[in-house]
Amino acid sequence: MTWRPATDEEIDRYYAEEFPTHVDHLPGFLTATGPKQYALAFREAHPVRSDERPNKEFIRRDTRQTNEAGEPTIQVFDQFEDVIDFIRQPARNDPLAPSEYALADPALLENTAPRPAAVYYALAHWDRPWILLVDIDAKDIARERATEIVPFGVDENDLTDLLDMAGILDAPPAGYPYAFEDIEQALEYGFEVQDIFEQDFAAEETMVVYTGQGVHVYLLDSDPAHRYDEKSREVVVDLLSESYDIPIDPVVTPDRRRVARLPYSLHADVCRLVQPISSPDFDFRSATPEVIET
Fold it and tell me: What is the CATH number of the domain that holds 159?
């Protein structure tokens, strides 16, 4: 299938028909009120109820209300079906309603209802330690490869020119800031990181997730000594980056405020299903939801 953005109708159909069939396969920590937040990104900014508030392209919604001490009190979502309803129709089912911070009711607007171009969950968690995740993106691999192909004669800060001169923009999938070989390399790196977690850290529970344009690698064990606090995560980043020369995003792993793509959500920019995988030989070209027209 050609790499392309999903249409609004395809996004609607995916979350109405296919996404609910995957819910039973979500990792156990992804419950209605486990992650501290769920988040959505929109293709176009959507108005909020107050005219004094800016339109929103990205929203976070807490899964539990808290008291003044920051302790959880009331569940915002009673069950995961409530999360699905929020994903499908975020303005109509905004947990912030009737606050002025909630998304405006599409019935009162001329523009259409917002649809999720991406669905995320917070790595911070109510019921377990903060999720340890490593992000490996094909875009970063492509940029690094481009600087080797074009060692001089172009400003490295001008990414478009750099990728163009390196021939990456014309390579399949044409027009994207990476080539298929960069995604393949991301998959290889992902399983290398999984091996490091299992061998060097004696991790018993790991997971590699294809994200549409790269991979996320999870270490889900709870370290009894450090609970993988910020300092120990910085050590993990340094180890992978410096000792193993794996091009990970150095900010994601130690940042408590980070969100990650929800497994089995749709990466609408490329029509690909975000999903756990078991091999670097995973056929990402065919990872297309059934409701997407090929």
Answer: 3.90.920.10
